Amino acid sequence: MKLTTMTQVTIGGVMQGNGHASDEDRRNGFERGGWARGKGDNETHAFINQTYQRADAFLLGRRTYELFAGSWGTLEVRDVPGWEPIMRALNTRPKYVASTTLTDPAWSGSTVLSGDVAAAVRELKAQSGGELQVHGSGALTRWLLENDLVDEMTLIVVPVVLGQGARLFPEAGPDLALELVESRGDSKGVTIQVYRPAGRPRYASA
Fold it and tell me: Are 36 and 188 in contact (CB under 8 A)?
């Protein structure tokens, strides 16, 4: 399977608390949650739905897994008009959680990956199929990139500057070159950028 990631970020790269609830993620005093709610036009919504439909399985970090389990795992189809494909995919396809603390996941179809997570992810990638998808899960996404396990990453960039919040990429960390595969903008100013990792960047010589 191809390992792909999808992350909603602000112009400044913040990914914290993008969901529907203002109190979804209050770590470190974050108070500006729900910034992605209502953003994106119908074409962007269709792109997101189609992406989830392509998944053969999902790989999530513990925090994102618990957020998803508490929302998508408990709702009915009638509760999410327009987002039914996401709900069906998450509730019917295998879910793998990278965690050293979660031991007994209650969401049906869930498996905890502990121990040598890199080896476990490589085994999943070696299976036949389409996509092993990572949604949200910032710490996991960074770790996967650092371990050369990501085949393709999608950034959905919302035109807002928050002035606070955890970013997908910290101020200091590993460097990475990216190859642009696809780019589009919608009528509400949201852009979708699809990249493939391309090794390390080249810098000017001294």
Answer: no
